[in-house]
Write a structure and sequence with these properties.
By secondary structure, the chain is α/β, with parallel strands linked by helices. Helices cover 36% and strands 25% of the residues. It contains seven helices and seven strands; from the N terminus they run αααββαββαβααββ. α4 links the parallel β2 and β3.
């Protein structure tokens, strides 16, 4: 049976709402130094998609103009809002519930777009990537930390076997071929740094003209 995107969205939302209280324990696979390095390059009006519980918030530069954070999980946004209330941020922050596949923003709005381990759970990753391209300024950049299917054949096959379990537990695909999705979304990879073999990567991406 084929599940429509909107139904799949609701299934994944419920899973992330369910695990929102323990998500930061799971999110420790992203090392602090990786976050610091990625966000040191971010400037201007910033959009963070899949902001989750707000784990990236302490690592943004103080001189960014503004930060807009979206997530489709109310549970995740609740924890992010708690961090903002307790923090002392020098830039304005706005959080909203929204779907990366249908962003509620005009074209060419943001200077920088951030996504950290987001595209493992987007039902239609190419649709989401094309939305990032649409709302990114032509001179802007998209900054990503993403885990994806290993290029090692044996490890990749094992990830394929385990993937149905991870999807059922919390809605994340561990075998996404994200580099291929980026190439098919009319985006140009300017920097591709392996962080954990070929599974975790730091990416800087530019919209193609």
């Amino acid at each position: 049976m084929i599940i429509l995107d909107e139904n799949l969205n609701e299934i994944i939302k419920k899973r992330y709402n369910r695990i929102s209280g323990i998500y930061e324990l799971m999110d420790r696979m992203i090392k602090q130094e990786w976050r610091k390095q990625l966000l040191s390059n971010v400037s201007g009006n910033v959009l963070e998609v899949g902001i989750g519980t707000g784990a990236n918030l302490p690592y943004y530069r103080e001189d960014i103009v503004s930060l807009t954070g979206i997530d489709f999980s109310k549970g995740m946004l609740k924890h992010a809002n708690e961090k903002i209330a307790l923090g002392n941020f020098r830039f304005p922050i706005e959080l909203m519930e929204a779907d990366i596949q249908e962003l509620p923003f005009p074209d060419n709005k943001f200077d920088s777009i951030v996504a950290t381990c987001v595209f493992c759970s987007v039902p239609n990753p190419e649709k989401g990537l094309k939305e990032l391209k649409r709302v990114c300024k032509p001179t802007g950049r998209i900054f990503m930390l993403e885990h994806m299917r290993s290029e090692n054949k044996a490890v990749g096959r094992m990830m394929d076997i385990l993937n149905p379990l991870t999807v059922r537990l919390w809605g994340a695909n561990i075998n996404r071929e994200t580099l291929k999705h980026i190439g098919r979304s009319n985006l140009k990879i300017e920097m591709n740094t392996p962080l954990m073999s070929s599974i975790m990567r730091e990416l800087i991406i530019a919209p193609k003209e």
